[in-house]
Design a protein that fits this description.
The chain is of the alpha+beta class. Helix content is about 80%, strand content about 5%. The radius of gyration is 46 Å and the shape is elongated.
């Protein structure tokens, strides 16, 4: 194309066709990256168009110069050239070109993050495009406005503009514009957390891209669909979708997108607890980003790898876990260093959070507190930035509304001026018409008078000289009177015309003053309203932050006190069990029963280790609690050989995901053994723990075939008169604290087991709602 245009240019005459050829060459050379040559051709086009007074050619050439300035980052020069092009288009009344100039200026302001000015220009472009019915330009402007609102986090306004774009794109049958609009609408729904709606739009977007054969668009569509599936915890479907997108990006050779897809796949593997594959995917993303020297991406990959090592450590023994935690710290620190270097605030925040959790899991509370404080400080800083962003959004909205109001006033002023000019022209025509009538009438009267006099003179030719003189005098007198009448009529006509012209000017001045007063009043009212809203918003925000800070401080104090109380209660494992266990061990050692004493000591030490590991955790996985109870019951079985126990778990319950408050089952089991089963003289001593899934939560049932509550109470009153048991009282207090701290209700019920109306044991029922799992996951 460039070569053929250069051939045409050599033989082109010095006319407008040569200007068009020069502009086309500069346009194609810019697209090919030949910026210097493109600028030279554009300058030549401007010079020739100026000599020919070819304003369309001049406007096009200045537009090309502006685009060349944008590519070099010379935004001020770009805006100047767009303004010059706009003036040329305005002179020739080219509204389509004017709309394009406004839109291009909006894009320059957008690149500079000057959203208020960008929105003003886009709004002006939209007004012109709607006037001439240019739907394609309207589509582009709506997309640009929606993208600006999306960048500001104003998703309702962004969605409104993108839906308008989608409607118009479908009306004109532009499949590519329709596909882009579908993607934009889906993205907004995704940001709002509406995954199902987002998926529907992304799927329609994918269908259009496949119809158009746009491989890059297809790949991006699969990536977006995979992200929405992952948010819905549909890990298998998300993984399959991401793998399709990865293959397409590898065929295209889009390296940054390849790295991003590896990262997305790693996140899915974390959700599936497949940590080796997650590490493999994050490492693949890291390799690509290192080749691209993408420091922000490298920081993100380091953080992801550190997160995987920390999650791996949580399921390992202490020695193995410590090694993984150390690897997690190394990678997380690498992420933090790079994030600070490039100013990647989200990466810094994520690194602080991960280091806090890792050091907490290791029991290094000093370092955990250090990074927790850094995390909180950065979070507060980001909150302040968010507040600033919202205020900037309000200011932008005010500026746009102000621009719209000014545009409206300008339109009213223009209409008033046109109306005045029309009235003035009408008045001038009327004056000229009346002057013509007066002049014609005067001429007619003069002609009549002259004719009459001539007639009289002809009749009196035969009369005496004296009569003739009298007739001449009479003629001169009448002629003078006729002339005076004509002059008088002419003066009256002129005075009337001047009066009407003065009246028209007075009306024009009054109309101008009225329009100006109206404009000032509207701007003042709009400004006062916006300032009032901003002041109210700031006051409410400050009040809300103060209330929130006081509430957080109060809640934190209450939470810490409750947590300390809960830790104290969790630590109060019945000392009888400790002493009896040690006595049992001593007895086995004295009897030289080495195997049993070794077994007892190993289990007892493991039990103590589990108690220490769980001491600071308000919630633990159900699997860990059941493991603890199994170990505890095995120790009690060594002490009471005829004790038979069983633990039944509903197969529909995922014991790794379901959480349970630490040590809420053991006191009931211990109570059943010590007060129900240990006093039983005849028959088997049996104890059952059943875990069942229900619609509202998980139900735990502890059933023994001991002597029952009434008999146990009698024995306690008989043999331990001076001892007052606080076991149930402490457990009740613990439930109350848990309910106050986490706002959910754990219900317990203790009843007798009857056999032929005889007490045959005790049944304890504990109901824990599903909110416990949610609370744990939010705090994790």
């Amino acid at each position: 194309m460039i070569d053929s245009l250069q051939v045409v240019l050599r033989t082109a005459p010095e006319d407008t066709s040569k200007v068009k050829t020069l502009n086309a060459l500069s346009w194609y050379l810019r697209s090919a990256g030949e910026m210097i040559k493109a600028r030279a051709y554009a300058d030549t086009a401007i010079a020739l168009a100026g000599r020919l007074d070819f304003k369309v050619g001049s406007a096009t050439a200045y537009n090309v110069l502006a685009l060349l300035d944008v590519s070099k980052g010379n935004y001020e020069s770009a805006l100047q050239n767009h303004n010059i092009a706009f003036k040329f288009n305005e002179e020739i009344g080219n509204k389509r070109g004017m709309a394009t100039n406004f839109s291009n200026m909006g894009l320059v302001y957008w690149v500079q993050s000057n959203y208020p000015e960008a929105l003003k220009k886009f709004t002006a472009a939209l007004t012109l495009a709607e006037e001439i019915g240019d739907k394609r330009t309207i589509i582009g402007v709506y997309n640009n406005i929606g993208s600006i609102y999306g960048a500001q986090g104003n998703y309702p306004e962004a969605l409104k503009n993108f839906l308008s774009t989608l409607k118009l794109a479908r009306e004109v049958g532009d499949k590519y514009a329709t596909a882009v609009s579908l993607k934009n609408v889906g993205s907004v729904y995704g940001y709002q957390g509406k995954s199902i709606e987002a998926t529907e739009y992304f799927k329609e977007h994918l269908g259009l891209m496949e119809e158009l054969g746009n491989k890059e668009g297809i790949a991006y569509a699969y990536d977006q669909i995979g992200a929405t599936l992952e948010k819905q915890d549909k890990h298998d479907a998300a993984l399959d979708t991401f793998l399709i997108a990865l293959k397409l990006f590898e065929e295209i050779g889009e390296r940054r997108s390849i790295a991003l897809l590896h990262n997305h796949i790693g996140s899915v593997y974390i959700g599936m607890t497949n940590y080796p594959e997650a590490l493999h995917s994050f490492q693949a993303a890291l390799n690509v980003r290192e080749e691209l020297a993408d420091k922000e991406g490298i920081s993100e990959s380091y953080g992801s790898i550190g997160r995987v090592y920390a999650k791996q450590a949580a399921s390992l023994s202490p020695d193995e876990a410590n090694e993984k935690y150390q690897e997690s710290i190394v990678y997380t620190n690498k992420s933090l260093v790079l994030a600070k270097e490039v100013g990647y605030r989200a990466g810094i925040k994520g690194a602080y959070k991960q280091l806090t959790e890792t050091y907490t899991s290791m029991g290094d509370y000093k370092n955990a507190l250090k990074y927790q404080n850094l995390f909180i400080a950065l979070k507060d800083s980001l909150l302040n930035n968010e507040t600033t962003r919202k205020l900037e959004q309000l200011r932008t909205q005010f500026e746009v509304e102000k621009a719209v109001a000014e545009e409206k006033v300008q339109q009213e002023k223009l209409l008033a001026e046109q109306e005045f000019l029309s009235e003035k022209e009408h008045a001038e025509l009327q004056v000229r018409h009346e002057l013509g009538i007066a002049e014609a009438k005067a001429q007619e009267e003069k002609a009549i008078a002259v004719a009459n006099l001539r007639y009289q003179m002809a009749l009196e030719e035969a009369r005496t000289e004296q009569e003739k003189q009298l007739a001449e005098q009479q003629f001169q007198s009448e002629l003078k009177i006729a002339e005076e009448n004509a002059r008088h009529q002419l003066e009256l006509g002129n005075e009337k015309a001047k009066q009407e012209q003065n009246d028209a000017e007075d009306r024009e001045q009054a109309e101008r003053e009225r329009v100006e007063r109206k404009r000032r009043n509207e701007i003042m009212l709009t400004a006062l309203a916006i300032l009032g809203i901003i002041a109210l918003f700031v006051a409410l925000l400050i009040r809300q932050r103060n209330l929130k800070r006081r509430a957080i401080e109060k809640a934190e104090t209450v939470r810490k006190m409750a947590e300390l109380e809960l830790q104290s209660l969790r630590a109060q494992l019945n000392p009888h069990f400790m002493f009896n266990s040690l006595n049992a061990i001593q007895e086995l050692i004295l009897l030289e029963d080495n195997d049993k004493s070794h077994t007892y000591l190993a289990r007892f030490s493991k039990l103590l280790r589990m108690l220490l590991e769980n001491a600071n955790s308000p919630f633990i996985p159900l699997a860990r609690e059941l493991e603890f109870l199994e170990l505890y019951l095995s120790l009690e079985n060594l002490r009471i050989p005829d004790l038979k126990y069983s633990i039944h778990t509903d197969p529909d319950i995922d014991t790794e995901k379901v959480r349970i408050p630490n040590m809420i089952l053991q006191p009931y089991i211990e109570n059943a053994i010590w007060h129900g089963l240990s006093h039983k003289k005849m028959g088997n001593r049996e104890l059952q723990l059943r875990v069942q899934r229900q619609a509202e939560g998980v139900q735990y049932e502890i059933e023994d075939n001991g002597i029952g509550r009434k008999k146990a109470a009698e024995l306690r009153s008989e043999y331990r008169k001076e001892h007052k048991s606080k076991g149930m009282e402490l457990l009740t207090k613990r439930f109350r604290l848990l309910n106050e701290e986490y706002r959910f209700d754990i219900k317990t019920n203790v009843s007798d087991v009857l056999d032929h109306e005889e007490v045959a044991g005790t049944l304890v029922t504990i109901h824990a709602p599903w909110e416990i799992v949610q609370e744990y996951e939010q705090s994790a």
